[in-house]
Give the backbone structure.
Amino acid sequence: MKPSANGLLTQVSIVHLISHLHIMAVPAMLPLLPAAMQVGFVELGVAIGVFNVVSAVVQAPLGFLVDRWGARRMLMAALVLGAAAFALVAAVPTYPALLVAMAIAGLANGVYHPADYSLLSRGIAHERMGRAFSIHTFAGFLGGALAPPLMVGAALAWSPRWSFAIAALAGAIGFAVLLLGGREPVVQASASPRAAERPRTGSAMAPVATLAVLTLLFTMLSLSTGAIERFSVSALVQGFGVSLGAANLALTVFLFASAIGVLAGGVLADRTARHGHVAAAAFAMAAMLVVGVIQVPLSAPALAVAYGAIGFLSGIVAPSRDMLVRAASPAGAEGKTFGIVSTGFNVGGVIGPILFGYLLDKGLASGVLWASVCFMAITTAMVLFQERKEPIRPALVRR
C-alpha cells in the first residue's frame, strides 16, 4: 500500500532522526571516550573523519543507486548497516573496532540524504515542500539533540558500550518502521502549474557551477556548526572552566533550538525567494553571539540561552538551503543532486574533527569557537557574493 503524504513524511522524518542520532553518537561521547578507549582527541577526530570520508566517497554514487533501485529499499539497507556498526562497538568497545564501525556507519550515512529527499520530492505536493523539508530537518536536529542526554546518560549510568547499544537499537527500530510503512511513491506529487520551470528529467544533472557552489556552501555550513555541535563541550570544559553538566546542557539547548529554528525556517522557505539573504543574516548574527560566548564569562543559564539563540539562527537556514538544492535538481534526479551537494557536509566533517581535535590537544580550546566564527563569516560572505553575482532562485515561491 502506498503511504499518504503525511505517512511518508512521518516515516522519512523518523529515519532522519535516527540518522542524526548516529551522526552525533561519537561526538556526544567525546568528553568520556579518551579515558574509556585510552586515546586522544586527535584519534577520536580521525574516527569521526573516517565516518565522513566514507560518506563523502559513497554519497554521490549512492544517490544514483537511489534513483535506480528505489529510495525506500536503500534506506532499509542503510539502517541495517548503521545498527550493525554501533552493535560492533557495543560488543567490542575498543578504538580499532570504533574505526571499523565508523567506516560502516559512514557507508550507511551516505544513503540518507539522497534517499530522504528523493522520497519527499516524489511524494509531497509542491506547495507544502518547504514545510515538509523543515519537518524532515527538524526531526534530524531532534535526533542530534537527543544524542547527548541519551549517549552520555547511558555511559554515566552503565558504561559507554551501552550507549552504543542504544544507537544500534535505534537503527533496528527505523528498519521496522520502513518495513511496515508501505511502498515507495512512484508519481511525482510535487508538480505545479509552473513545473516546467524546473529542469526536466531529461537533464541528467544540474549545471556543474551550481553544484559546486551548493557543495561548497554545505561544506562551510558543516564546518560552522560542527565546531559547536561536536567539540564545543570539550572546549568549554577545557578552556572556559565550564562544568561538563553545564556544557552538555548548553549543547542540548543549542540542538533543540536548532530544531525549532528549522520549523521557523520552513515557513520562510515557502514565503520568500531571498534564501541567500536569510542565510547570510542568520549566520552573521550567530557569529556575533559566538564571539560573545568567547569574550564574556557567562553563568550556566546565560550560556544555555546564548547557545539556544545560536542554534535557532543556525536552524533557520536549513529549509531554504534544501529548497535551493531542489530547485537546481532536474525532476526525477533528486537523489543524484542531493547526493552530490551533501558531500559538502562530509568534506567539512573530515576537515573539522581533525582541526578541532588538534586545537584541543594543543590546549587551544578557545580556537574551536573562534574557528566556528571564522567559518560562519566565510559562509556569510560567500552567500552574499553569490546572491550578488548570480542568485539561485527556486522555480516557485509561495506568495
Summary: The domain at 5-188+206-389 is CATH 1.20.1250.20 (Growth Hormone; Chain: A;). The chain has one domain: 5-188+206-389. Residues 186-203, 392-399 have pLDDT under 50 and may be disordered.
